[in-house]
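pasting for ref
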Amino acid sequence: MNPRFAPGQAVVVAARESAGHVRTPRYVRGKRGVVERVCGVFRNPEELAAGNRDATRQPLYRVRFAQRELWPAYAGPTGDTVDVELYEHWLEDGR
């Protein structure tokens, strides 16, 4: 599977609820970030947690968020960031 997003590309994390095992933290859902790197392609951990040993393979990305994007009241330096690894099915084009 070829990655849909490339380093430097703006993305938005889907703002949806999901039951069961989810690796996408709530604090990044609906937030805008930038792909820092493509980490590789791996089996979907949400499907694996549900017992599907033939889980689909998905690109995994490291996405960088400005601290103030995640926490608007953040009082630290404006350049502070947080990197989160997210699977492709949670990402949308951020243009």
